[in-house]
Design a protein that fits this description.
about 40% helix, single chain, alpha/beta, Rossmann fold, binds S-adenosylmethionine, 7-stranded mixed β-sheet, 7 strands, about 210 residues
Length: about 210
């Protein structure tokens, strides 16, 4: 699904247009919740071609980790980081974050932009992300409206017909927040668009890691 051709196309698109609207909102909200990001560390899970990574580094973060299941996307994010001159402050981790998380150190900020909707086990993915967020976690995921659930059912139907293993998952937004709350993270920002919810949560108790 997230192969070389798609990665090249998305990197070209990102270079022309920058981050999309929801991603820009997420970055601003994360920066707001973290009282600025200068000097902070971050983990961007499923970052694709790295829109969040490039923007956070441009705003002065110190170090980052890009963790992605797609080698093609990880390579595209790294190529752009090299072009921008900050790749030496990045760590790249390839594979399913749920399995690879124990290789990743905690960071001030953790982001997941449109990743939860690619993964069946939302509590496992968000749990692994949440325990590594020292201050702030931001994510974008489908709002879960009835209209959207119907659309996704159609997409998944055609995926099954094509015998393609990729599925889209619309997890219950209340359950998403409940999982984060169980890890000591509570809402600091929420904004709904037509399709996507931008949610930022902050740690109210001591960090678990
Ligand atoms: C829909 S793309 C979103 C990419 C980017 N965040 C954006 O919004 O443009 C989903 C990304 O999440 C990655 N991904 C999905 N499940 C993952 C997992 N369990 N661990 C790590 N990466 C994952 C995919 O490889 C892909 O890069």
């Amino acid at each position: 699904m997230f192969g070389d051709r798609m990665a090249r196309r998305q990197l070209r698109h990102y270079r022309r247009k920058g981050p999309g609207r929801a991603t820009r909102r997420l970055i601003d909200a994360v920066a707001g919740a973290s009282a600025g990001v200068a000097g902070a560390t971050f983990i961007d899970i499923g970052g694709g071609v790295g829109a969040i990574q490039h923007e956070l580094m441009a705003r002065g973060t110190a170090r980052g980790t890009s963790a992605d299941a797609s080698p093609a996307y990880l390579a595209a994010a790294r190529a752009e980081a090299e072009a921008r001159g900050y790749a030496d402050r990045m760590t790249y981790v390839e594979g399913d974050f749920v399995r690879e998380a124990n290789k990743v150190e905690a960071a001030d900020i953790v982001t997941l932009d449109r990743v939860v909707c690619c993964y069946p086990d939302m509590p496992a993915l968000l749990g692994a992300a949440a325990v590594r967020a020292r201050r702030t976690l931001g994510l974008i995921f489908p709002r879960g409206t009835r209209f959207m659930r119907s659309g996704v059912a159609v997409v998944n139907f055609f995926q099954r017909l094509r015998r393609h293993p990729f599925r889209v998952y619309v997890h219950d937004p209340d359950q998403v927040e409940a999982v984060l709350a169980r890890h000591g993270l509570s809402r600091s920002y929420l904004r709904d668009g037509m399709v996507w919810r931008v949610l930022v949560v902050v740690r109210d108790g001591p960090s678990l890691s």
